[in-house]
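[job 4417] fold queue: 2 targets
>>> target A
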Amino acid sequence: MKSGLSKRLLFRPWAIGLALLCGLVMVPYAMPVLPVPAFVKYNEAIGSFLHLKFMQTENHRDGPLPQDWSDMHGWPELTALVAKVVSSLSPEERAKAVIVAENYGEAGALEFFGKAQNLPPVLSGHNQYFLWGPRGNLGEVLIDVNGDCGKSIQLYRSATLAAVFSNPLVMPHENNIPIMICRGPTKDLKDILAEYKEILVTKATHYLANRVKPVGICPPIRLRG
């Protein structure tokens, strides 16, 4: 008994030390203790050993940062650029303008950061935003964030590229995205949002059908539904 107890007591400091070491390795991922450039290098050095890809909640390709950390960057800059595009409109167009974002993340960020800049209403065909609908807006002038004014199905008679948003720290699918000014709708805004929803579904289906499945020690766990 004493021999076994002695061995456990001898092992305890090593176990505590290992636990502390593992905790220290994860500190930069849990707390902003490193400047962003240093964190990018840190992630490049050890990220693959930590299998962070198995914690992803999306199927998109990562950039220099893991997905959850990329999603913390770029929103104020995107909002500022959209505000600049809105300010380029005439007062008459600004009064009837709406913003449509490709996904709920972009839409939510534009609503949150755009309050201080008095942005037009923000809509989307994605997730809950689609259920909220046009909210009384007509969409005669539409600022399309990360879209092309429904060019392939001619949702608008006029489409003008107003700006391109770039940020190397955001997710690749949200980098170098167009910001378009759409004029002359060919459908009601409710139907336009429905078309945007279908475009998103088509893009997602195509992506999932062609993506390369990740390889690792354990398969990623994904929820059904």
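>>> target B
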Amino acid sequence: MLVLVHLAEPGRAQPIAHEGLVFSDELGGFRILRVTGSGTLADPFVVVEEVTDGEGSTLIIRGLSAAFGNRVGTTHLVGFALRKVVINRTRDSWGSYEVELREALETHSPYEDGLSFGQGSQEGRPFRSSRYAGSLETDEPFDSVMFTDGTVGSGEGVALQLVITDTSPLPLFYVVQRQAQQVAWLQSLLGRARGLAALRARGYVPSGSAVSGEGPRG
């Protein structure tokens, strides 16, 4: 059970240096409350955050290098285990939650950059959450983990278990996080598309017919 404590100090916190890395909320939208742990599977980094922006937020991590080493036992040059404790201070309930890795803030992480959620390894898997029953990993064309099948209401918190690795680390990378409001609609649309494909295969629907749908607004 997560015990949530509301801290009244407004604004962003100072970057937190811990175990050779620096964790920063300087881009706004959330606030880091504390960082603990050593980054191993048995003792992951625990980053406790309050998220206030309903559109998402981005954690900056600095200092990852070959000297940091690999603390999770994969074949990647560097790696660590991360437990994000995210407290929902927005007005929305989160029906799903996505975490994405990037080396450039405005660009998805390609395969060639070496940054991933332990791609090719089973260490730390399956990625788990305290409030979501499922998770969906995407390795290409970007690196993300989407936690699904659950709800995090306003004022509630969720713990997300991850492994982050890199084969050619840069001194700075980004952990982009956001609620995925359109997941349910997309799953519904995909189901209709599969149903339409089955009808086409049986000759019940003309081949020119299309599936359409309107996503959630707001």
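[job 4417] complete. Note on B: Residues 182-212 form one domain.
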